[in-house]
Amino acid sequence: MENNGNLLTKRNILWENVGWMTSGLLLIYLKFFVHELWKDEWQAWFVAKDKNILEVFSFLNYEGHPALWYLYLKPFTWIYSFLPLQEEYILSFAHLLPAIAVFYIFWKKFDIPDLVKSLFTFSYFFIFEYGLVNRGYILVILCLFLAVFYLQKDNLKLLGISLFLLCQTEVFGVFMAAALGAYLMLNNVKKYAVPLQYLTIGGILFVISVYPRESGHIARTQGKILSFGDRILTSVQGNITNAFLPGVTDDTAVFGWTFFGMILTILMLILFVYLFKNYKQIWVPLLLVILMSTGFSLFFFVGGIRQWGMMFVFFVALLSLAPIAFYQKRANIFLLSLIGLVQSIYGLTAVYQDITLPFTNAKETGLFIMEKIPEKVPIVAINKFEITPVIGYAKRKFYELPSGEPFSYFKWVEKIYMPTQEELRLFAKFKNVGGLVIISPKRLDPGRFSEATLGKEFTTKNIKNENYFIYTLAVK
User: Fold this and answer.
1) Which of 26, 290, 302, 471 is 20 to 30 A from residue 191's alpha carbon, by CA?
2) Where do the domains of the chain lie?
3) Which pTM was predicted?
4) Cα(13)–Cα(129) distance, rounded to whole angstroms?
C-alpha cells in the first residue's frame, strides 16, 4: 500500500527527536521520582511474581485480561529475585520500555503534522493514563502502532504477528485488531489473507484464555446502580466525548451522563463524518471499534476513562493511515489540533496533580508498617482489593480471613468477607500471638469491632481518595 513516507514534506527530524526524547525523559522523572503505584499496577506484578507461567494462564479468567502483560512482566520478576532493587522501580522500568517505544514510533514513523503530534503527545491518555500508570494498556498501544507501521511497510508477516499479539493484550486490543481487519478487507482481502489468519487465531486464543468468567462476575461489574437506559447513554458518552474531550464534562472519569455530554457526543460524531467522509477505509474501522467498545460497555463492563481512552488511541493510529490529501486541508489540522489541545490540557493537569498529590495513601501506610509493626505481628486485611498497594510498599504479605492465608494479589470475582471480632481473636490465638493488627480502607464499625483500637489513620488528600486505617486488637 502507499506509504505517506515523504509525502508530508520537510519533516523536521530534529523536532521528531526532541519530541520522543522529551516524552521519555518526562516519563522517567514521573515514574521514578513522583508516581505512587496503584492497586491495579501492583496486582499484575504480584500475579506475575507469585505464580508460575502455567498458574498465570489458569488465573486469567479471574482477571479478564489476556496473558501478554503478565508474561512480559515475568522476566522482570526474575530480575527482582536476585537483584537488591525495589519492586516498584523494576515494574516502572518494565513499563517504561514499551512506553518509550510507543513515543518513538509515534514521532519517527507516523506521518502526522508536527503540531498535532506535539499536542497528542501530552494528551491525557499518552502521557498519563497509559504512559505513566504502569498497566498493560501500553502493550495495546505498542502492538497497535506496530501493526499500523508494518501495514504501511507492506510487511505482511510482521503485520500478522502484531495483530495476533494485539489480541493478547486487552479486550479492546481484540476490538482494534478486528477493526484493522475490516480495513484490510476494504483494501484487498486476498492480499491480506495471511495477516487476517493471524488475527483470527489471536481472537480465538483470546476467547479460550480469558473466558468464560465465573458465574455472577458480570453482574457485579456492570454498574447495577445504572438503569439500562442510563447504561446506554453512559456507554455512548464514555466512548466518545469522555474519550476524545476529557475534562470538558464534569463526569469525565465516573459513571453517568449529562445532557451537555450527549450534545458533545453528537457533535463529535458529526466531526468524524466531516473528517473522514471521503475516506471509507478510515471511517469504517473507527465506527466499528466505537460500536464494539460501546456494546461491551453496555452489556459487560461499563468501564471508565482508562477503558474509554482506547478509542482515542485507535483514532490516532488511523490518522497515520490517512492520505496526504487529508492533511492538505487546513480545517482538518485545525480540528485535530483542537482535540489535541483539550487532551493536552487535561493530561498536563493530571501530571501536575500527580506531582503535587499522592496517588493514594498506600505508600505512606506501607512505609509506616515497615518501620513500626514487627514482622511477627500478623496483619489482617479488611477488603483485599483496596489493601493490595499497601502490601507492595510494606514489603510483606498480609492475611485474609476466613482462610487465614497470607496473600498479595486478589481475585476480581471474590466477594469481600467481613470477619467478626471473635474470628480475629481466634486467628491471633492460632498464630500464637497476643494480638494482631487490622488494616482497613474505611473506619471499622465500633459496634461490630468494639474492642479494636484505632492506632493510626492515613487520610491525607490524594488523587484516588483512598485512605487507610490501622487498628490493634488484643487477645483476651
Assistant:
1) 290
2) 13-356, 362-474
3) 0.92
4) 27
